[in-house]
Amino acid sequence: MSDLKQQKIILIDLIEPRMTSEHALDRMVELKELVETYGGLVVVKKWQKRFHPHPRTYIGTGKVDEIGIEGKELGASLVIINAQLKPRQIYEVSESLRKYKIEVWDRIDLILKIFSKHAKTTEARLEIELASVRHMGPRIFGMGMELSRQAGGIGTVGIGETNVERMKRHLKEKERRIKKKLEKYQKGRELQRISRKRKNLKTVSIVGYTNAGKTTLLNAMTGRDEYVADELFATLDTRVGNLYLPNKKETILVSDTIGFIKELPPSLINAFSSTLSEMVDADMLLHVADASDIHFYKNLKVVDSILGKLKVKSKPRLLVLNKMDQVSKLTRDEINRRLEEVEHVWISALNKKGLEKIVLKIEDL
């Protein structure tokens, strides 16, 4: 994959004809935010209305040709489709746009690029590499067609087929090597967990939608000085800090985790199993939510869904409503009413307001 920087990009999303214009715009805004997080320049935003994705090209052959012509005129070198495409679809679109010298990514390609940019530790880099290998694997389908053609036609037994098998073996071996390396880190984490249990150290894990303020809260509560940025996926590595509970007269551990995002496929969640294990093994979860976000309720559902997939919904959980200084009293009252039966507190992690409420709730729970 080429670098997004200095590239002109066309974004396209497939929307169901009955979808509201507001929903369609929301989807595009999030895709644009992902591109901006990586550092790209968006040239055109396009929508294609279809009841079902095109089996070969996802967005339809006519739309692919239209994008190719427009992309050439605008000098665009990359098209990003806001979905996880099937191997055949990404291959067909890539082949059609090759003559215009335009590369094609799906949503997962973009997220992996952002992950790669923000990975700081060797473990996080290995997890991203594993996710990339798993995402690339099925695309051998397209490579196989291309290599077979080079060998004299589809279906021939020749060098093309040999190359495909070679590539499959190479990727399988690469995945095996990465997993082996990750096992060392997983064993290290397991030893840490055993040590904590022996010392009777309780752990609290901070979870939430990406860019909700999780790392800012970790820093405010534990006095750590971790990297904070107003962008998606700024944190990929697990960070752990100490928090003293005055009424209990004991110290607990607080960990920060990767931010969640909607339509994050299970393969990516699985690739980050080592990082997410901190959350799975925690005694309690702090679910941090940006209460000022216009998609506040939708983001709550996304996090709830992912916690369900990870089978940790039954853990004691406190909802932390962050950025209260950016929310009007009227909105706060409305949120309080709607979340009446949910254990929650209001804070401003940036201004360190309301943190004592979290400590009291942690002691109670």
Strand order of the largest sheet: 6-7-5-8-9-10
Shape: globular
Q: How would you characterize the largest beta sheet?
A: 6 strands, mixed
Helix/strand structural class? alpha/beta
Estimate the mean pLDDT confidence.
Answer: 83
Q: Flag low-confidence runs.
A: 144-159
Tell me the radius of gyration: 23 Å
Instruction: Say what the CATH topology of the largest domain is.
Output: Rossmann fold
CATH superfamily of the largest domain: P-loop containing nucleotide triphosphate hydrolases
CATH first level of the largest domain: which class?
Alpha Beta
Helix content: 40-55%
Distance between the termini: 47 Å
- The number of helical segments is 13
What is the domain total for the residues? 3
What percent strand?
15-25%
Topology as a string of helices (H) and strands (E): EHEHEHEHHHHEHEEHHEHEHEH
Number of strands: 10
CATH architecture of the largest domain: 3-Layer(aba) Sandwich
What does this structure look like?
The protein is built from 13 helices and 10 strands. It has 365 residues and is of the alpha/beta class. The chain folds into 3 domains: 110 residues, GTPase HflX, N-terminal domain (Rossmann fold, 3-Layer(aba) Sandwich), CATH 3.40.50; 62 residues; 164 residues, P-loop containing nucleotide triphosphate hydrolases (Rossmann fold). The longest helix is centred in the middle third of the chain and has 40 residues. The protein is globular and about 70 Å long. About 4% of the residues have low confidence.
